[in-house]
Amino acid sequence: MKHFDVLVIGGGHAGAEAAHAAARMGANTALVTMTLSGIGVMSCNPAIGGLGKGHLVREIDAMDGVMGKVADKAGIQFRLLNRRKGPAVQGPRAQADREIYQREMLAVIQSQLNLTVIEGEVVDLKMVGQRATGVELADGTQIHSSTVVLTTGTFLRGIIHIGEEKRSGGRMGDKASVRLAERIDAFGLPLGRLKTGTPPRLDTRTINWSILDEQQGDEDPAFFSFETAQLSAKQVACGITHTNERTHEIITKNLKRSAMYGGHIDGKGPRYCPSIEDKVVRFADKTSHQVFLEPESLSGNTVYPNGISTSLPVDVQKDYIHSIVGLEDAVILQPGYAIEYDYVDPRALDASLQLRATTHLFLAGQINGTTGYEEAAAQGLVAGINAACLAQGREQVHFGRSNSYIGVMIDDLTTRGVTEPYRMFTSRAEFRLSLRADNADQRLTPMAIDLGMVSSKRQSLFEAKRDALSAGYQALTRKKYTPKHISGAGIAVKEDGTRRTPYQLLAFPDVQFADIVRVQPDLEGIEKKIQIQLGRDALYANYIDRQQKDIDRIQKDEAQLIPSGFVYSGISGLSNELTAKLENARPSNLAQAARVEGMTPAALALLLAKLRQHK
Ligand code: FAD
Description:
It is built from 19 helices and 20 strands. By secondary structure, the protein is an alpha+beta fold. Pfam families: GIDA, GIDA_C_1st, SAM_GIDA_C.
């Protein structure tokens, strides 16, 4: 029987990242997935990144993960969202050629040292007592592994809905994972149902592009990977059109025939990614919604109409598509559909994404109630690292709310659970001024270097940048200038008598690096890329200094780990209600305990005292 340190089930976005991370950590890793051609498949929109999501991709890349590099290779239109706002809320996004994305992801996975790819359907998890020890495939093959990472996405008892029609499926064209779902059922895990949907795909040759507005990408593309220096794929524009009163009338008239509105689906859908039926009902006063027509690849004919996902029957889909300007003769290549699937309440996981009820079994991706490729990949990274650590007898690695969006997401999921598919937003991060997409490497690459999971190329690139930033900072803080001197150089600052360093001057939003070079000409020698980064760091320096106390406190609490078997009952002074809530939530550290509903500073002090005795 084959034996691995880490076995990952599923080659979607979570699985690819988990397997690659574990292999980079030096663990002998297997990736078992239904089909090789399914690795890196984008089930829905052909795009990576966006607000909050782009932060996650940069963080994955900072840990030398794969999503950012592959997205850069496949990117056919790059746009930095919120470009006019501050760097903290800017989100890199790229439309991706889905064929290139799949091809590149497969190549990256297949060429990774320590990583074996196995094609097959996992139908059983092997357990010894409460410990996962491997899997069984549909053909009877048994594979032994020290740890198992489950990343089956929307495949667990997936049901595809198109109007009144429904059938079993993991996504269009793939069969659902039913036997594995039944096996998981037997563990008594808290399972629920969620749903998501996708729009019909259109034939580019049947769209009247000549009458539509165009959206071009940025001239200076913001890549995802800190390693990428240039574009790989040809860049294209996408088209813009709108739904109209006629479209809404068709949808309203046929609402009862929609799987979602006809009562065929129980699962809850993503509020922030509503179907066109949802939009028409929820925003009844709006007579039009924007639709982006995004090419799915450079070589194929498929177009993804972003903004009109649906579970209406095919004849209604045809009617409403044809009511839209430019789509009057559009041919549907694949109908839109909704999918309903099982997910596991993520409160059953600890901060390493390991199930608490069993050991050596990790869960990552859509199976944990999230939605989106980036959320899935980020969880895959966490689970892959921790599965490798467990197999290698190393300590678990925790991402915190104060160092990453990844930490914010893991904490949200494992302490609060989900009531609808969870997606990332910048508003979820309380320390977003320091958790920027542009400084993900400064925040996380040192940790990845310590874990020994980065390439030598990445390490030397990072160290050179870190040294250049440090030298640049020294140069910017060596001298102070009077307001008179500064205004003499053409910079308008408050005449408050304060002497300021060039770094402090950069904190004024309208002061550019070129301005401060007039004050101190030797600063011109700093490399352009480093100038820009120092400018971003300086912009938020004052706020971050003020936040530092909160960050220090939360980091101290995050470092105060709560052992998995910690007994809450019997802590004198802790109410029965709070004891029950803590027993249910099983926080991994004191910071998580502080966020349990009803927690008070006094109760936290009692808990801390007990933890100290426990040591
Ligand atoms: P997936 O990408 O689903 O990958 C799961 C993998 O597991 C597959 O490779 C599969 O072959 C494999 N697998 C499953 N069972 C087994 C088994 N028993 N043995 C071996 N291998 C197995 N996200 C958004 O952000 N916005 C959207 O609007 C959106 N709409 C969507 C619409 C649809 C119809 C679908 C299907 C998904 C949509 N998504 C959307 C979600 C997005 O596709 C997922 O969030 C993302 O793909 C999840 O990644 P994952 O790795 O968890 O799972």
